[in-house]
Amino acid sequence: MTTSTRPLHLAAELAPGSGRADPGPDTTARTVALARLAEAAALDFLTHDDSFGGPGLDALAVLARIAPETRSVGLVPTVTTTHTEPFHVQAAVATLDWVSRGRAGWRIAVSATGAEARLVGRRPAPPAAELWQEAGEVAEVSRKLWDSWEDDAEIRDVATGRFVDRRKLHHVNFQGATFSVKGPSIVPRPPQGNPVTVVDATRPAARDTAAHHADVALIRAASAEEAAALRAELHRGARAHGRDPGQLRVLLSQTVDLDAYEGGPGALAELIAGWHGGGAVDGFHLVPAVPERDLERFAAVTVARLGDRGLFRTAYEGATLRDRLGLARPAGQYATTGASA
Q1: Pick from 19, 131, 165, 268: CA 20 to 30 A from residue 199's CA?
Q2: Backbone region of residue 32 per phi and psi (left: phi > 0; alpha: psi in -120 to 50; beta: other values)
């Protein structure tokens, strides 16, 4: 395998197991400690899983609470687009971007079970293909709403009492298959323009949505060859949707028990270096079996070895999550085109 000059991207999951963590008095302190551990290792971002069926606090709320306790690491909660209102979802993600000063993302998820549908009681769960089509529409309208405020729409003129230039607010007038949104948003355009969109593209039904809308796609693969094939498939899909494949990061999402893998965190460093260097993936997303144990070992040994070899940063550069990922800040689509709706 040839050594790649592409930047290596590393991320990790905060929640133990799947779904929300059980609530408790030490939940916030635990999550803050893990986030600071990851930040000390200069990881690109942290995810926090969530679902309608699990106990505990909403992932968006958890990471909004964590944001003031951290300075650099990206914060990416799982956000379920099924049974939720797109307008409120995008406003919450935009708010997280403001609270974190440009470090927010969201991992789009769908709710496919009848049990979760009954919890909400609005409609039965549609087939997976329809759910991911709807999720793509939520991603699309979210970008439109984030762009519905031009970057300089806020005036904040105390003397005249004017807060916003109404000429720089835009109605999006979006009509999807299952919802419609008029807009504009109630939150000013986020610091990143558009917070980073992450899609788990492990399931085939999610791959077109990832290729069309994701800034970061997560995959699972048993070999470097399989990972490279999935990355190439996602790049072809991005190109088919008129996107630059170079603006899509593909990370291998790997569940790791550093107590039971042969070779431990050192061997994991070799695996990451080999797969990334050979062009199979743009980085790794660690899902620790036991976050307190495995994330610490990942940071102390795996990341340190990659840094010593010049394969991963030893300090943060830039200010936003998009900066860390090497992604351009998108121009506001209405300001760019001069459109008013």
Answers
A1: 268
A2: alpha
Q: Where are the strands (E) in the chain, listed by range? A: 9-13, 45-48, 74-80, 105-109, 154-157, 162-164, 174-175, 180-181, 196-200, 216-219, 249-256, 283-288
Average pLDDT, the chain: 92
pLDDT at residue 59 above 70? Answer: yes
Give the helix, strand, coil percentages of the chain, each rounded to 5. Answer: 40, 15, 40
What distance in Å separates the CA atoms of residue 212 and residue 96, rounded to the nearest whole number? Answer: 23
Q: Model's pTM, two decimal places?
A: 0.93
Q: For residue range 125-165, what is the model confidence (pLDDT) as tens digits?
A: 889 999 999 999 999 999 999 999 999 999 988 888 889 99
Sign of CA dihedral 290, 293, 296, 299: negative
Measured CA to CA, the distance from residue 12 to residue 303 in angstroms comes to 12
Sequence-distant (≥ 6) Cβ neighbours of residue 77 within 8 angstroms: 47, 48, 50, 58, 59, 60, 62, 63, 96, 106, 107
Omega before 25 within 30 of 0, i.e. cis: no
Closest CA to 91 of 71, 65, 110, 64: 64
Residue with tokens 């769960």: 125
pLDDT tens figures, 270-284: 999 999 999 999 999
Both structure tokens of 32: 């803050």
Give the Å distances, CA to CA, from 183 to 152, 169, 187, 226, 315.
18, 9, 11, 42, 39
- Both tokens of 174, joined, read 């979006």
CB distance 67 to 75 below 8 Å: yes
| Per-residue pLDDT, 68 | 97
In single-letter form, the type of residue at position 234 comes to L
Alpha helix stretches (DSSP H) within 148-244: 204-213, 224-240
DSSP SS3 for 150: coil
Contact yes or no for 168/149 (Cβ under 8 A):
yes
